[in-house]
Amino acid sequence: MRRPLLFSAALLLLTGVALAEDPSSPAAYLAVVMDSKLHYNMVAKPSKTPVQVQVCPRRDETMRVVVDGAKKSLRPWSLKIEVPKLLAEGETLFQAEDYEGAAAKYKAAIELDPEAAPAYLFYGDALLMGAMQPAEALAQYQKAVALDPTLPSAHFFSSTAYGLLGRKADAREEIIRALTYYPSYAAVWKVATQNPGAWGIKPVTRHRFEPPAGFIGVAGKDGIDVFGGANGEWLGYALCKAVWANEPQFKARHSNGGWSVEEEHACVVNQIVGAFNKTEAALEKENKPHGEKYVIAAMPPLEAHIWEAAEAGLLDGYILFEIIGTHCPLALSAMSDGARDQVDAYIRKYLIVPAN
Question: Helix, strand or coil for residue 64?
């Protein structure tokens, strides 16, 4: 039989962020909706007036992380005024395959401004592409890493040099660091999916979190639309997000279009508990075994994976990587050390895993 309150409460305790006043199951969120002074429409199609999902640009070499005590912030990278001109001149030469001339421009930029991280990256590329000197290129890439360890491209370029030097384990470490700060790094995923042997890793399976477009609507005169997917498969998440966006007791903590680990944690847990309940009911109806392990094994792959991650203590790692990091990778640049460790551990356990 279903255990919506007891079981989901246990899972919330397991994942460590439940707040006493929060609903703890799909049934409890539905009760909030039913008791609300607002009007919610359970619609069969995506909302015609959907809430816009906030996205932010990818991280690049024009920004750096500045640490002030325990606080981290992302700011424009201040370069001496002559440096951008040298970099632009070097890029023109690089594109013309005059790697020696480009290297001279980049080296001049470094001499002018030793904290110009982009100059180290571009100088390394010129050494790699022109003289085919991966060790020398790596030394330049690592200088950029030292200036800002959160710079994804510096780690990816370092992995390329390590790969050419035959150092797969080191290349793998740099890839993990690149993904920690930029989960959607297209160049990384191209190699990971097409040539995992380059880093000596197992084939990668990602479990993306992709609710349907228009799963909740903007509050209007006819109420708030809630679309749980064609077969109600996203109802747990959609209900939770609608409540957090509109109910007074939640709105003060709502991310207002941004991304909050607290809110995503609550709604992702609601989604997987809903999937557990739905799967358990189907097994029970078919007179099949429906103990916990059987239900988890029969759940949809996405929810089963998130459930496993939660039991491993890595639910925040999943949320930061596949939800917040996918929509707003800039947010990961200034995350706390504890959050970074969660993302790192999630990547190592489920994505970039040594083949042996």
Answer: strand
What value, to the nearest 5°, has the Cα angle with vertex 80 and ends 179 and 90?
70
Where in 40-143 does DSSP place strands (E)?
40-42, 63-68, 71-76
CB atoms closer than 10 angstroms to residue 138: 24
Please list, in sequence order, all residues whose beta carbon lies within 8 angstroms of the beta carbon of residue 129, skipping any fewer than 6 positions away.
94, 99
List residues bridging with 68 in a β-sheet: 71
- ∠ CA(42), CA(44), CA(47), 5° rounding? 75
Q: How many other C-beta atoms are found inside a 10 Å radius of the C-beta of residue 90? A: 26
User: In sequence order, what are the beta bridge partners of 225?
Assistant: 41
Whether domain 63-198 has CATH 3.20.20.70: no
* SS3 category, 208: coil
Per residue in 218-276, pLDDT (tens digit) is 998 889 999 999 999 999 999 999 999 999 988 888 876 678 899 999 999 999 999 99
Count of CB atoms within 10 A of residue 331's CB? 19
- Identify whether the C-beta of residue 60 lies closer than 8 Å to the C-beta of residue 153: yes
Report CA-CA distances (Å) from 113 to 75, 99, 101, 110, 118. Answer: 18, 21, 19, 5, 11
Domain parsing of the chain, residue ranges: 4-38+226-311, 63-198
Tokens 């990384």 — which residue? 188
- Torsion angles phi and psi, residue 25, rounded to 5: -165, 165
